[in-house]
Amino acid sequence: MTKSTESPLELKEKGNTEFQKGNYDAALEYYTSALKLTAEDTPERSVLHKNRAAVHLKQKSYKNVIQDCDEALKISPNDPKALFRRCQALEALDRYEEAYRDARYVINADPSNKAVQPILSRLFEIVQERHKQNSRTSAKVSQMLEMAFDMTTDKVKRETAMNNLLVLARESAGAEGMFKEGVIARILKLLKLEGKNDEIVVSAVRVVDELCKHNIERTAVIIREIGVPWFLEMMNSNCEERVNAAQHCMQTVINSYSGLENKPEAKPDKELCEKYKTEIDTILSCLVFSTTNRTLSGLARDAVIELIMRNIHHTALNWAERLVEIRGLQRLMEVASELEEYKYESAMSITSSTRTVTSVCLARIYENMWHDQLKQQFGEAIDEYIKDMLLSPDIESKVRVTVAITTLLLGPLDVGNSIVARDGILQMILVMADTDDLLQQKVACECIIAAASKKDKATTIINQGVNILKKLYQSKDDAIRVRALVGLCKLGSSGGTDATIRPFADGATKKLAEACRRFLISPKKDKDMRKWAVEGLSYLTFDAEVKEKLVEDQQAMQAMIEVAKTGDKSVLYGVVTTLVNLCNAYDKQEMIPEMVELAKFAKQHIPEEHELDDPDFINKRLILLAKAGVTTALVALAKTDSQNSRELISRVFNALCSQQEVRGIVVQQGGAKALLPLALDGTDKGKKQASQALARLGITINPEVAFPGQRVMEVIRPLLNLLDQDCSALENFEALMALCNIAGISDAVRRHILKEGGFPKIEAYMYEQHEMLQRAATQVVNNLVMCDEAIKYFEGDNDRIKFLVILCEDEDVDTSLAASGALAMLTSVSIKACNKVFDSNNWVESLRFLLGNPNADVQHRGVVIVSNMIKSNKEIATRIIITDIMEILMAITKSEDVKNLKVKEIAQEALEAAAKWELIEKQPEEGSEVEGDSSEMENVE
Length: 941
Hints:
Elements: H1 8-21, H2 24-36, H3 43-58, H4 62-75, H5 80-92, H6 96-109, H7 117-148, H8 155-169, H9 172-180, H10 183-194, H11 198-212, H12 216-226, H13 228-235, H14 240-258, H15 270-275, H16 277-290, H17 298-311, H18 319-325, H19 328-336, H20 354-367, H21 372-390, H22 395-409, H23 413-420, H24 425-433, H25 438-451, H26 455-473, H27 478-492, H28 508-521, H29 527-540, H30 544-551, H31 554-565, H32 572-583, H33 593-601, H34 615-627, H35 630-637, H36 643-657, H37 663-668, H38 671-680, H39 684-700, H40 703-706, H41 711-714, H42 716-721, H43 729-743, H44 747-755, H45 758-764, H46 771-784, H47 788-795, H48 800-807, H49 813-829, H50 831-836, H51 843-851, H52 856-872, H53 874-881, H54 885-894, H55 901-916
């Protein structure tokens, strides 16, 4: 009989059975199916909602518990079980006042209920303490409001009061009290007078941020009162702290309206997004129109574009499509065409990172053009901007178009390449490079460098532009020389790592590398020169000889690291690509011998790797890089929003972590902290690389040191993501090893692994034929069973105990130790586990194997298992005693070969336990015990 033909009563009974077995997912499915077939407002429906709430309670889905209990109480008001379960869920969510209310209702409805009495007492104390705290908080809020907004008070005291208000706003009582006392109106009034005091502004903005956080009602009122432009006004500053505070506050508003959280994996709530569509669209419009605001500071412009970029990929927000509709692309292209050092009448204020941020934003928008029609609209918008700019014949328009094309080539490359391929565009750029005008030379050089990204483009430019670049390299202006140098470097590296392809004459690559080095280490050169020098090296380091020379050049390495540590987004590509090349952390095509022979026969070109790229040389370079402090550079650069750059950074981190001796350095310099967001947000390859790096750190270093505090919880998900069939066996193994170490820390950590769905993923590798994977998975499970919640997985209707019994006899000693260790812990706390040992047909042989094992640790675990089973109950003890295991135990207590006194002691305890049962020869009739919940209030109906 299928579920669709079963009655609601039959489905409910099946749900109850699964609930009692601990199979909560199955129980949930049965109750939900029964609800679909049950009429509204009936007692049966109330019972089903209560039962489903019981399942949610076991699964810690507290919001779902409350929803089901609410539905049950609509039908059966004052139902004690529904109130009790809702009370438990509310307490778990720290909603103590509401939980206390429900506990009182339960007592009123059922005065003799012993289950709720201790909860009522506990909640009463919590509520009383919170009431006292709230009263104190309310008084403190009033005092600080008075001090902060009284202009006659000393300035230092007002600043202190604003900081205190920020602290109070982080408490729910403080935030609510402040809001009721009209703090927003006071803030607006204060900032009209103190708008130039950045410290006051930052504190005020952060207070608004806290008031909006996770509270959509307050957010809606605040936005009506102050308006979206206020945030942009607060952001419009050259004070980085103020810009960051306003940017964060605006993101909090977006989060409140959409249900987002500041976590990489967070997604918006579709229903909320639909409900507040107008407000969300208003925010996007304000952000888009402010991108080209001439009065906006460069830092603020970057922050606005970053806000667009960070939210553009959420389909529920629909920002990508809307942005195209409101001509946001044309505005971004206008920003993309700006040069920091080129000022004209209507020039915008930008930073050295603005064009990089804009290119990444354009790339993100293009990535979210989900179908061809949207991509076509994207291309048409870009075309429109280019054509409009080229209608004007003046030099300024050509310069700005070239700069915009360069920015496009650094972002959505396909779109940029299609523009360069248009008739006359590349010729225009080459003509500009060949003029005597320094500005035209400079922007043309940059565009040539960006355009030579693909081999076919590089070939075209080698044929047409190499002589122009050589001529420009002779310029007296260093800015032109260094750009021409980078152009030559890029064209010279078009063969990649293939040692047989050399576009330029022998020795030319080394000369170019030496020229880049001189620009990089010269104290007279400004940051811009060094940035370009690093980019030149990023191309030249495909050459293995250049890699070896550079990595041993301490002065050049330190100069590059110092450039990276500035965090300037425009240096990102050059530094990271150079490091990827030095580490050989790029994807390598597997060379299949048969295919190589076939290629030789067909007279096709076969790439050859340089002898200096052998593993020994790579490992030496990795150690030198780590000791030079390259982790500090990676940490500074890892804040980028560019997904491709994040992947490259993850590759370098993973390559460094492959060397055991430098893992400590990576942790000391902040590598573990930087890797966590990289492992959760980015390209699939990037996340995998970062996760493997974290696993390697967790294997070698004490996890409590590598991932202190809350970080140890955050690292669990990336490690579990490596337990996937698409990952290599090495990645699986390293993840399991790290999880094993982490699972040994505490019960809280073990519970978090289970909450993240780790058990089935880990358990799957216990069934692998690969010895090392099976061993590692069993070791993780051995640590997990120290947690009470993990024991439920073995007590259910499954063969997990049976498989552990089989693994106890494994030839691999470590696997046997782990399996028998897990079984020892399970049998010590669970009678069901003791009973389930008999499910294995070979349980006697397995116990004999453990008790007679020459390995003292294995024997110790075996004696513990047998002792636990004999002590558990008379029935289990009887089944063991009718075998020869009792004789083996007696032999252990007397054997001189058993050196471990603890083993003898436990064996003796087992014999004494058997004696206490006063066992007779006749075995009692077998029956199975069913363990119910201790409290009647928790039972399903």
